[in-house]
Write a structure and sequence with these properties.
10 strands; 11 helices; alpha+beta; flat; about 30% helix; six-stranded antiparallel beta sheet
């Protein structure tokens, strides 16, 4: 007859095993905390995480939280070490709509986040400090579509979008607008091949595919460098082109949204000095300076645009108090904008944005 184990003995052994497992877990946990306390190792771990992963890890225990964020500046430093979370691509997918042209001509879409491609540059966003790749940051002209040429002598076609406008626009290389395809510089290639591109903020843009109005192609470089404090995107060079040109409509909406109208009695605090006889500064903002020279993720871009639309909203199109508007103010820099009637000379795309205030 076999002897049965005492229930008390079995209970003791069970508690011993549980205690041993607990000690092992504590030992492993302590080792992991010590690893996270070494910044080089922590940075290596963070490089494989997204912001949501870092938050979940930090909230898993107090010890881990303090190991990851030992100082107030630790969060900002670590955000720049993370992988790009791909939020910009998701935002573009929500706003951008493929045209009928995309489906009719068997075009290809090329969109790849820097988290999955080492050749795409990533930097911390200027505002939120989260790592953001070049595909997820704001671009004035975002090239994402490619059409293979049907003949060896033809050039490939490209298209994309202006900021977060839903309309797909043709994007042409310099070679598209000349009979000489041997212009200096390499021909634009299919970005998917890794031999060039994508071609953001370059070339020429035309009227959106699904827009039946007319407008001449515009050189992207000239649009980006236009001094918006002294010139307007609404001025067309031809009487048969609407004001603004359909090519520039998306840019025009963004640049006009920044303007607010004030009389001398209702100036905001940032401009009170103007009423004291101090010479105010003029706006010299450009699209390049506002969006491309600032590495800004699309989430922060949307936040900024939403804030601008709500700030002094009653001064958007006219002065709220009913008096005549003496000043037009730019919310990007809080400088004064010269309206077309006040411009010292005819506005042209490509004007030097470094013009001084001597004309005021």
């Amino acid at each position: 007859m076999k002897r049965k184990r005492s229930p008390e003995l079995a209970s003791v052994e069970s508690r011993k095993k549980a205690s041993q497992h607990s000690l092992n877990d504590v030992s492993i946990s302590c080792l992991f905390v010590r690893i996270l306390q070494q910044y080089e190792l922590l940075a290596s771990v963070a490089s494989s995480l997204f912001p949501e992963d870092l938050l979940a890890l930090a909230l898993s225990s107090k010890a881990i939280y303090h190991a990851i964020f030992p100082r107030p500046c630790s969060l900002e430093n670590l955000l720049g070490k993370l992988s790009c979370p791909g939020k910009g691509i998701q935002i573009r997918q929500k706003h951008h709509k493929k045209s009928s042209f995309f489906y009719a001509y068997d075009c290809n879409e090329y969109v790849q986040c820097g988290a999955t491609s080492g050749r795409i540059e990533s930097r911390p966003c200027l505002n939120c400090k989260v790592t953001t790749c070049d595909e997820c940051r704001v671009h004035c002209v975002y090239q994402s579509h490619y059409e293979k040429p049907s003949d060896p002598d033809e050039l490939p076609n490209f298209s994309g979008f202006v900021l977060l406008s839903p309309l797909e626009v043709p994007i042409m290389s310099p070679q598209h607008l000349t009979l000489d395809h041997q212009l200096p510089g390499p021909l634009w290639q299919n970005p998917a091949n890794g031999q060039g591109g994508p071609y953001h903020d370059q070339g020429f843009i035309d009227v959106p595919f699904d827009d039946d109005t007319f407008g001449p192609p515009e050189f992207v470089e000239d649009i980006l460098n236009l001094n918006l404090g002294q010139h307007s995107l609404a001025l067309s060079v031809s009487s048969n082109v609407p004001d603004p040109s359909p090519v520039l409509q998306a840019f025009y909406q963004v640049t006009e949204q920044r303007k607010r109208f004030f009389c001398d009695l209702c100036l905001p605090p940032t401009l009170l000095k103007c009423s004291e006889g101090i010479q105010p500064k003029l706006c010299h903002c450009t699209l390049r300076g506002r969006f491309l020279d600032r590495w800004l993720c699309l989430r922060c871009y949307e936040t900024e645009e939403a804030a601008i639309s709500k700030t002094y909203s009653t001064h958007r199109d006219h002065h709220a108090c009913g008096r005549s508007s003496d000043r037009v103010v730019c919310q990007w820099c809080w400088g004064l904008v010269l309206e077309p009637k006040d411009e010292p000379e005819t506005a042209e795309l490509g004007s030097d944005p470094s013009t001084t205030e001597s004309s005021s």
